[in-house]
Amino acid sequence: MTSSLNQNRVRQSFRRGLSSYHMGATAQAKIATNLVQMLREQGAPVRFENVLEFGCGTGHLTRPLIENFDIHHLSLNDLVAEALSGLSVLTSDRAERTDFTFGPIETVPLPKELDLIASASTVQWVSDVPALMARLVARLCPGGWLAVSGFGRAQFHELRNLGSDAAAPSYHDAQDWPALLPRDVELMHVAQEPMVLQFDSVVELLRHLRKTGVNAQASQRWNRGRLREFEAAYRHQFGQDGKLPLTYDPVCMIARKCR
Length: 259
Known about the structure:
By secondary structure, this protein is α/β, with parallel strands linked by helices. The chain has a single domain (1-196, 248-257), classed as Rossmann fold. Helices cover 36% and strands 26% of the residues. It contains 10 helices and 9 strands. The chain has helices spanning 4-16, 18-24, 26-41, 62-68, 84-90, 129-137, 157-161, 177-180, 202-212, 224-238, and strands spanning 47-54, 70-78, 98-102, 114-120, 140-151, 185-192, 195-199, 244-248, 250-257. Strands 3-2-1-4-5-9-6 form a 7-stranded mixed beta sheet, with helices on one face. A two-stranded antiparallel ribbon has the order 7-8.
């Protein structure tokens, strides 16, 4: 499981970037939309009785879930309690059928008899993904659905090749997912397709990371000289037509609990 120290750092980072996350996290928004589309393509029912979404953040996945499915009761979880205000606005027309819990998904109380558990761009922050999957699947009804996205090993490879310590603890490629799931789960579909964002400068790239909170593990302290050196190295190794690329490596997975 993620240590309490790391959880605190992650919480602080996402809390700091909460006001800018929704607009800045363009990759995460697209990933969430793709995950819902994949769920529909795999034959998920139009109606779900009880749904849990963890790591809901500012609602990038919440919105397409409630727009694409008839959900009787929705349980939302996030590490950052301050996310409640934005989520409450998003779910205001179904407030009596929505509840919220805040804290690490590894330890918070979970609803029972769930028909769908969904999460986008969150499991990379969980150190023991198989343990979490076992915990979640135990709350799924037979035939219940699991729709999760994380990131593969190419995530932010540019930063890691230059010595950055901004990586999350759990990057898993598509081929890793069968071993991450309990035996009573059928893996229906998994897809991995990198997305590359382009930036004009290292300052712009680092500002993106800060605004989206995804640099929670980073400990670097920057000054003007270090920024110049880092940008020169980045451009030398990865520069493309004057731009600095940053790779997101989303892995989307759909599974069902055996009946």
